[in-house]
Amino acid sequence: MFLRRIFIALFLVFSVVGNANFILLPMDETGQQNHLKAYGITYWALDKQYKASWLLNYRGGSFLLPDAPEIRKECQIRGVSFEVLSDGQANSILDEISSPSQNMETVVLEKAPKIAVYTPKGKQPWDDAVTLVLKYAEIPYTEVYDEEVLSDQLLLYDWLHLHHEDFTGQYGKFYGMYRNAPWYIEEKKNAEALAKKLGYDKVSQEKLAVAKKVRDFVIGGGFMFAMCSATDSFDIALASEGIDICEPMFDGDASEPNYQSKLDYSKCFAFKDFTLERRPERYEFSDIDMTDKRRVPFEKDYFTLMEFSAKWDVIPSMLCQNHTQLVKGFMGQTTAFERDLVKSNILVLGECQIDGEARYIHGQKGKGMFTFYGGHDPEDYQHRVGDEPTVLDLHPNSPGFRLILNNVLFPAARKKKQKT
Question: How far apart are the C-alpha atoms of 36 and 378, rounded to whole Å?
């Protein structure tokens, strides 16, 4: 009798396991205890050659994975909530999503993208939000910098993040406040030595060459993601190609007369008609940035994610997946973008409705795509030089960091032609 009971119990266990064909990683507000690590589980599964689907607008943009013991174990180790589904339950969800009456879509994720993060060697006096969240989500990446970029190593990657960077050769416009700081002096010295090593007379010339390589990476089909000052300084560098916009303290000689009138906005990815900030002591590149112009109280500083048709506008829908449509604002050297200076062909994914500023934008260049995200750290409202890095264990459900990870997984999607 005892052996018979054991046999029946084992039979029931294996029957349940046999009927459990899928794992759902819910991404709604109450169903997921660690949203950020859920992206890492999905990336890990893709890297292990498992199939995965991104269920757009279904419970906050959930992920559907095959049921496998190692996936369950990995979820348990990383503290990611999951639900075991039978084949029938999964089909019922997919049927609901496919209904024309539902603003949902299923996107097949095909392979784990190869990720590069553009960042200088050694410790910086600030942190990079993308590096922080990639480490937290346990998504592997490779660090690259000017030497790798200029030797065409970007061809090895699908996705590139631009570190908090200045592509104009003005050392981040930190001159006014930090020109006597040891770290600033060291940064300037190292940048000049690297430029000379790579065959350039000026840092501005070398950074322009890097920006052009990144431009070619995108045009050739790559995906580029930039935050904070890497957004506007990238476009400014492209627009000022062949024009000296640097003052003597940056490159040793005077800037070119009337350089503002010589800018070529057609070379820019996202911005147009901007005016450069000429004063070297001012911590600002141009009027693209809204930091000093915005009048948004801290308690009301939120931006709204736009709502798109998941079936028709798949790309922006992927990039906006979240468990809330209202994301807490955060500042940076480039906090947000002046709406009137954003090109008409650029899609605004998130905006602050109080002053209309664009916070999160996306566009296409050649065969590739790019996303610019204003601000420095989604969970540190006013991150300053020398501040301690954000501890993401305290923010496992951060909507602002989720937007970064949407971009990380985006290149894994099976490409569909956008209908609008």
Answer: 13
Element (H, E) at 23: strand 20-25
Give the Cα separation of 276 and 97 in Å (integer): 47
CA distances from residue 46 to 259, 326, 335, 345, 357 in whole angstroms, order as listed: 49, 30, 34, 33, 36
Dump the DSSP string for 28-86.
STTT-S-HHHHHHHHHHHHHTT--EEEEETSTTTEEEEE--HHHHHHHHHHT---EEEE
Model's pTM, two decimal places?
0.92
Torsion sign (Cα): 400, 325, 36, 48: negative
DSSP string computed for 276-329: B---TTSS-SBTTB-TTT----GGG-EEEEPP--TTT-HHHHHHT--S-SEEE-
Residue-range domain boundaries for the chain: 2-109, 115-412
DSSP secondary structure letters along 50-65:
--EEEEETSTTTEEEE
Cβ atoms of residues 83 and 67 within 8 Å? no
Tell me which CATH code domain 2-109 carries.
3.30.70.790
User: Tens-of-pLDDT digits for all 420 residues of the chain?
Assistant: 433 443 333 333 333 334 469 999 999 999 999 999 999 999 999 999 999 999 999 999 999 999 999 999 999 999 999 999 999 999 999 999 999 999 999 999 999 999 999 998 865 645 789 999 999 999 999 999 999 999 999 999 999 999 778 999 998 888 888 899 998 899 999 999 999 999 999 999 999 999 999 999 999 999 999 999 999 999 999 999 999 999 999 999 999 999 999 999 999 999 999 999 999 999 899 999 999 999 899 999 999 999 999 999 999 999 999 999 999 999 888 999 999 999 999 999 999 989 999 999 999 999 999 999 999 999 988 766 666 788 999 999 999 999 999 999 999 996 654 444
Angle at 119 between CA 114 and CA 124, to 5 degrees: 145
CB 109 within 8 A of CB 416: no
- Could you tell me which of 253, 149, 159 has the C-alpha nearest to residue 207? 149
What is the spatial distance between Cα 128 and Cα 317, in angstroms, rounded to a whole number?
25
Find out whether 59 and 29 touch, Cβ atoms under 8 Å: no
Please list the residues that pair with 227 across neighbouring strands.
373
Q: What's the burial of 131, exposed, middle or buried (CB within 10 Å: 0-12/13-18/19+)?
A: middle
**Tokens encoding 299:** 């308690």
Q: Give domain 115-412's CATH superfamily.
A: Class I glutamine amidotransferase (GATase) domain (3.40.50.880)
SS3 of 241, please? coil
